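CO-FOLDING WORKSHEET

Operator: S.A.
Ligand of interest: fe (ii) ion
Run index: 176
Mode: holo prediction, single chain
Checklist:
[x] sequence pasted
[x] SMILES validated
[ ] output reviewed
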Amino acid sequence: MSFSLTGFVQSARSAAAETRPVAAVRTLMSQTFADPQAIAKAVGSSISEDEILYEDDEVSIYWVRFAPHELVPPHNHRMHAFLGVYEGTEVNLLYRQAESGQLELAKRRVLNPGDTMSIGGDGIHAVHTEDAMPSLGFHIYLGRLSTVSRDLFDAETGRSMPFTDENYQLLLRPLV
Ligand SMILES: [Fe+2]
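OUTPUT RECEIVED:
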């Protein structure tokens, strides 16, 4: 199977426009990531930070890189999110909010090259890589992620705050 960024963006836009977009995007992600080596061969690992490949009110398509030794703070997306990894290993920590407001770890999902997962609109996750290598992948969101009002959380206290660059840096932790 061959892979191209433009083809992936087109397919993602089509899937997001289907009558059942969640199922359609999930299928697209598992088909696309079934051959992670084809993706790596086509696009390599030249990405140094997240890149928005396409975004409108219906769908956002991101090329993503998680740096090693960093714990990306818990956050939500306020829309369905679909994650796929083609290089490196990414650990997703999925949280639920207790009535006290505290975050409780609900699930730990390890994504190796070829693996995909989806997160519902209210889902909260934190992310780190498994080892000293970055993880590379694509994310699809069913909405315009860059401007939606969403939240970051302090993992220790559960306190939420608006998702801004400043708060993100404040909550970013070295992975120990
Ligand atoms: Fe996320």
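REVIEW:
The two ends are 39 Å apart (CA to CA).
The mean pLDDT is 95.
[x] output reviewed
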